[in-house]
Amino acid sequence: MAATPGLDDDELQAWLRLVLADGVGRADARRLLAAFGPPTALFAARPPAWAAVVGESVAAGLRSPPGDFDRWLAATRAWLAAGPGRAIWALGDPAYPPALLQTPDPPLLLCAQGDPAWLARPAIAIVGSRNASAQGLDNARAFARALGEAGYVIVSGLAAGIDGAAHEGALAGPGGTLAVVGTGPDRVYPARHRALAHRIVERGLILSEFLPGTPPLAANFPQRNRLIAALSQGTLVVEAALQSGSLITARLAAEAGREVFA
Protein backbone atom coordinates (compact mmCIF):
# COMPACT_ATOMS: atom_id res chain seq x y z
CA MET A 1 0.00 0.00 0.00
CA ALA A 2 1.60 3.30 -1.07
CA ALA A 3 1.02 6.12 1.40
CA THR A 4 2.15 8.97 -0.84
CA PRO A 5 4.11 9.08 -4.11
CA GLY A 6 7.37 9.54 -2.20
CA LEU A 7 6.63 7.55 0.97
CA ASP A 8 5.78 3.85 0.80
CA ASP A 9 4.15 2.00 3.67
CA ASP A 10 7.40 0.71 5.19
CA GLU A 11 8.77 4.24 5.20
CA LEU A 12 5.54 5.58 6.69
CA GLN A 13 5.72 3.05 9.51
CA ALA A 14 9.35 3.91 10.23
CA TRP A 15 8.66 7.65 10.31
CA LEU A 16 5.66 7.20 12.61
CA ARG A 17 7.68 4.99 14.92
CA LEU A 18 10.31 7.75 15.19
CA VAL A 19 7.78 10.55 15.67
CA LEU A 20 5.85 8.60 18.33
CA ALA A 21 8.88 7.19 20.18
CA ASP A 22 8.67 7.82 23.93
CA GLY A 23 11.15 10.41 25.16
CA VAL A 24 12.54 11.23 21.70
CA GLY A 25 12.10 14.91 20.92
CA ARG A 26 12.37 16.59 17.55
CA ALA A 27 15.95 17.70 18.19
CA ASP A 28 16.92 14.12 19.18
CA ALA A 29 15.21 12.80 16.06
CA ARG A 30 17.08 15.21 13.80
CA ARG A 31 20.39 14.16 15.34
CA LEU A 32 19.52 10.52 14.67
CA LEU A 33 18.50 11.27 11.09
CA ALA A 34 21.77 13.14 10.51
CA ALA A 35 23.72 10.18 11.82
CA PHE A 36 21.85 7.26 10.25
CA GLY A 37 19.83 8.62 7.34
CA PRO A 38 16.10 7.92 6.93
CA PRO A 39 14.17 6.09 9.66
CA THR A 40 14.25 2.79 7.76
CA ALA A 41 18.06 2.90 8.02
CA LEU A 42 17.90 4.18 11.60
CA PHE A 43 15.85 1.20 12.78
CA ALA A 44 18.12 -1.20 10.92
CA ALA A 45 20.96 -0.06 13.20
CA ARG A 46 21.63 -1.46 16.68
CA PRO A 47 20.65 0.21 19.98
CA PRO A 48 24.27 0.84 21.04
CA ALA A 49 24.73 2.91 17.90
CA TRP A 50 21.66 4.98 18.78
CA ALA A 51 22.93 5.50 22.30
CA ALA A 52 26.24 6.80 20.97
CA VAL A 53 24.33 9.62 19.26
CA VAL A 54 21.56 10.55 21.72
CA GLY A 55 22.42 8.75 24.96
CA GLU A 56 21.07 5.58 26.51
CA SER A 57 17.87 7.06 27.99
CA VAL A 58 16.70 8.52 24.67
CA ALA A 59 17.80 5.43 22.72
CA ALA A 60 15.65 3.28 25.02
CA GLY A 61 12.55 4.91 23.54
CA LEU A 62 13.49 3.58 20.10
CA ARG A 63 13.76 -0.10 21.04
CA SER A 64 10.13 -0.92 20.29
CA PRO A 65 7.07 0.95 18.95
CA PRO A 66 4.86 2.59 21.60
CA GLY A 67 1.81 0.64 22.75
CA ASP A 68 -0.63 2.79 20.75
CA PHE A 69 1.42 2.65 17.55
CA ASP A 70 -1.08 0.49 15.65
CA ARG A 71 -3.89 2.92 16.42
CA TRP A 72 -1.91 5.91 15.07
CA LEU A 73 -0.81 3.96 12.01
CA ALA A 74 -4.38 2.90 11.22
CA ALA A 75 -5.67 6.48 11.61
CA THR A 76 -2.93 7.81 9.34
CA ARG A 77 -3.54 5.20 6.65
CA ALA A 78 -7.29 5.84 6.82
CA TRP A 79 -6.83 9.60 6.43
CA LEU A 80 -4.52 9.19 3.43
CA ALA A 81 -6.98 6.85 1.74
CA ALA A 82 -10.09 8.95 2.47
CA GLY A 83 -9.81 11.33 -0.47
CA PRO A 84 -7.62 13.02 -3.08
CA GLY A 85 -5.13 15.78 -2.43
CA ARG A 86 -3.76 14.23 0.78
CA ALA A 87 -0.09 13.64 1.45
CA ILE A 88 2.44 13.24 4.22
CA TRP A 89 5.78 14.95 3.63
CA ALA A 90 8.78 13.84 5.61
CA LEU A 91 11.73 16.05 6.45
CA GLY A 92 13.92 15.89 3.35
CA ASP A 93 11.07 15.09 0.97
CA PRO A 94 11.23 17.17 -2.26
CA ALA A 95 7.72 18.48 -1.53
CA TYR A 96 8.64 19.66 1.99
CA PRO A 97 8.26 23.48 2.22
CA PRO A 98 11.74 25.04 1.87
CA ALA A 99 10.82 27.90 4.22
CA LEU A 100 10.46 25.45 7.11
CA LEU A 101 13.93 24.02 6.46
CA GLN A 102 15.34 27.46 7.36
CA THR A 103 13.88 27.30 10.87
CA PRO A 104 15.67 25.88 13.93
CA ASP A 105 12.83 23.43 14.66
CA PRO A 106 11.28 22.05 11.46
CA PRO A 107 8.57 19.38 11.84
CA LEU A 108 9.60 15.80 11.13
CA LEU A 109 6.36 15.15 9.25
CA LEU A 110 3.76 17.40 7.66
CA CYS A 111 0.24 16.32 6.76
CA ALA A 112 -1.05 18.29 3.77
CA GLN A 113 -4.45 18.48 2.13
CA GLY A 114 -5.12 20.66 -0.90
CA ASP A 115 -2.89 22.08 -3.61
CA PRO A 116 0.81 22.34 -2.64
CA ALA A 117 1.39 24.78 -5.54
CA TRP A 118 0.20 27.58 -3.23
CA LEU A 119 3.40 27.12 -1.19
CA ALA A 120 5.42 28.49 -4.11
CA ARG A 121 3.74 31.91 -3.90
CA PRO A 122 4.71 34.80 -1.59
CA ALA A 123 2.73 34.66 1.63
CA ILE A 124 1.58 37.00 4.40
CA ALA A 125 0.26 35.75 7.74
CA ILE A 126 -2.77 37.43 9.30
CA VAL A 127 -3.42 36.49 12.94
CA GLY A 128 -5.25 37.96 15.90
CA SER A 129 -7.78 37.59 18.65
CA ARG A 130 -10.32 34.79 18.84
CA ASN A 131 -12.68 37.32 20.44
CA ALA A 132 -12.25 40.10 17.91
CA SER A 133 -14.53 43.11 17.50
CA ALA A 134 -16.72 43.48 14.43
CA GLN A 135 -14.33 46.17 13.18
CA GLY A 136 -11.36 43.84 13.66
CA LEU A 137 -13.06 41.07 11.69
CA ASP A 138 -13.88 43.50 8.88
CA ASN A 139 -10.28 44.75 8.86
CA ALA A 140 -8.90 41.21 8.67
CA ARG A 141 -11.19 40.33 5.74
CA ALA A 142 -10.34 43.55 3.91
CA PHE A 143 -6.58 43.18 4.37
CA ALA A 144 -6.71 39.53 3.31
CA ARG A 145 -8.70 40.26 0.18
CA ALA A 146 -6.48 43.20 -0.80
CA LEU A 147 -3.28 41.26 -0.20
CA GLY A 148 -4.70 38.33 -2.17
CA GLU A 149 -5.48 40.66 -5.06
CA ALA A 150 -1.84 41.84 -4.86
CA GLY A 151 -0.63 38.27 -5.35
CA TYR A 152 -0.04 37.10 -1.77
CA VAL A 153 -1.26 33.87 -0.24
CA ILE A 154 -2.81 34.45 3.18
CA VAL A 155 -1.56 32.20 6.00
CA SER A 156 -3.46 31.78 9.25
CA GLY A 157 -4.47 29.18 11.80
CA LEU A 158 -8.18 28.44 11.13
CA ALA A 159 -9.02 29.60 14.66
CA ALA A 160 -12.13 31.54 15.63
CA GLY A 161 -12.06 35.30 15.21
CA ILE A 162 -9.36 36.99 13.14
CA ASP A 163 -7.96 33.75 11.68
CA GLY A 164 -11.28 32.70 10.21
CA ALA A 165 -11.94 36.20 8.88
CA ALA A 166 -8.52 36.24 7.19
CA HIS A 167 -9.20 32.96 5.41
CA GLU A 168 -12.64 34.21 4.35
CA GLY A 169 -11.21 37.46 3.01
CA ALA A 170 -8.60 35.61 0.97
CA LEU A 171 -11.24 33.34 -0.53
CA ALA A 172 -13.52 36.29 -1.32
CA GLY A 173 -10.96 37.49 -3.88
CA PRO A 174 -8.82 35.75 -6.46
CA GLY A 175 -6.16 34.52 -4.05
CA GLY A 176 -5.65 31.40 -1.99
CA THR A 177 -4.98 30.68 1.64
CA LEU A 178 -2.96 28.31 3.82
CA ALA A 179 -4.35 27.06 7.12
CA VAL A 180 -1.80 25.72 9.61
CA VAL A 181 -3.79 23.83 12.22
CA GLY A 182 -3.08 22.69 15.76
CA THR A 183 -4.99 19.40 15.41
CA GLY A 184 -4.66 16.37 13.20
CA PRO A 185 -5.60 17.06 9.56
CA ASP A 186 -8.80 15.06 10.03
CA ARG A 187 -10.10 17.40 12.74
CA VAL A 188 -11.55 20.90 12.29
CA TYR A 189 -11.36 23.20 15.32
CA PRO A 190 -13.56 25.04 15.94
CA ALA A 191 -16.15 22.72 14.40
CA ARG A 192 -18.10 25.66 12.96
CA HIS A 193 -15.21 26.19 10.52
CA ARG A 194 -15.82 22.84 8.83
CA ALA A 195 -17.31 24.43 5.69
CA LEU A 196 -14.48 26.98 5.64
CA ALA A 197 -11.93 24.16 5.83
CA HIS A 198 -13.51 22.48 2.79
CA ARG A 199 -13.24 25.76 0.86
CA ILE A 200 -9.58 26.09 1.84
CA VAL A 201 -8.85 22.61 0.51
CA GLU A 202 -10.42 23.65 -2.81
CA ARG A 203 -8.39 26.88 -3.11
CA GLY A 204 -5.47 26.53 -0.81
CA LEU A 205 -3.82 24.08 1.53
CA ILE A 206 -4.28 22.77 5.07
CA LEU A 207 -1.06 21.83 6.87
CA SER A 208 -0.53 20.04 10.18
CA GLU A 209 2.50 18.59 11.90
CA PHE A 210 0.15 16.50 14.06
CA LEU A 211 -0.95 13.03 13.05
CA PRO A 212 -4.53 12.20 12.08
CA GLY A 213 -6.57 11.64 15.21
CA THR A 214 -4.82 14.37 17.24
CA PRO A 215 -7.45 16.36 19.19
CA PRO A 216 -7.30 20.13 19.85
CA LEU A 217 -4.81 20.10 22.74
CA ALA A 218 -3.86 23.51 24.15
CA ALA A 219 -0.13 22.76 24.04
CA ASN A 220 -0.22 22.18 20.27
CA PHE A 221 -1.37 25.64 19.23
CA PRO A 222 1.78 27.57 20.24
CA GLN A 223 3.76 24.94 18.30
CA ARG A 224 1.78 25.58 15.10
CA ASN A 225 2.41 29.33 15.46
CA ARG A 226 6.09 28.88 14.60
CA LEU A 227 5.03 27.33 11.27
CA ILE A 228 2.66 30.21 10.46
CA ALA A 229 5.51 32.67 11.03
CA ALA A 230 8.04 30.63 9.07
CA LEU A 231 5.84 30.16 6.00
CA SER A 232 5.19 33.89 5.66
CA GLN A 233 7.30 36.81 4.48
CA GLY A 234 5.54 39.01 6.99
CA THR A 235 2.94 38.80 9.76
CA LEU A 236 0.04 41.20 10.24
CA VAL A 237 -1.49 41.19 13.75
CA VAL A 238 -5.10 42.38 14.01
CA GLU A 239 -6.38 42.83 17.58
CA ALA A 240 -4.38 40.65 19.95
CA ALA A 241 -4.23 40.43 23.74
CA LEU A 242 -0.84 40.95 25.40
CA GLN A 243 -0.67 37.29 26.42
CA SER A 244 -1.79 35.61 23.23
CA GLY A 245 -0.72 33.14 20.61
CA SER A 246 -0.86 35.92 18.02
CA LEU A 247 1.92 37.80 19.74
CA ILE A 248 3.91 34.57 19.99
CA THR A 249 3.60 34.34 16.21
CA ALA A 250 4.67 37.99 15.85
CA ARG A 251 7.70 37.45 18.10
CA LEU A 252 8.73 34.33 16.16
CA ALA A 253 8.36 36.22 12.88
CA ALA A 254 10.52 39.09 14.15
CA GLU A 255 13.17 36.70 15.47
CA ALA A 256 13.26 35.07 12.03
CA GLY A 257 13.87 38.42 10.36
CA ARG A 258 10.37 38.68 8.91
CA GLU A 259 8.32 41.88 8.76
CA VAL A 260 5.72 42.38 11.51
CA PHE A 261 2.75 44.72 11.04
CA ALA A 262 0.02 45.71 13.50
Task: Name the features.
262 residues; alpha/beta; eight-stranded mixed beta sheet
Task: Explain how this protein is built.
The protein is α/β, with parallel strands linked by helices and 262 residues long. The protein is 44% helix and 16% strand. It has 12 helices and 10 strands. Strands 3-4-8-7-6-5-9-10 form an 8-stranded mixed beta sheet, with helices on both faces. Strands 1-2 form a two-stranded antiparallel sheet. Helix 11 (220-230) packs across helix 12 (245-255). The longest helix has 16 residues, at 134-149. It is elongated. The model is unreliable at 1-5 (pLDDT under 50).
Give the helix/strand layout.
Blueprint: E1 2-4, E2 7-8, H1 9-20, H2 26-36, H3 39-42, H4 47-54, H5 56-60, H6 69-81, E3 86-90, H7 98-101, E4 109-114, E5 123-128, H8 134-149, E6 153-156, H9 162-172, E7 177-180, H10 194-202, E8 204-208, H11 220-230, E9 234-238, H12 245-255, E10 259-261
Parallel strand pairs: 5-6, 5-9, 6-7, 7-8, 9-10
Antiparallel strand pairs: 1-2, 3-4, 4-8
Helix pairs in contact: 8-9, 11-12
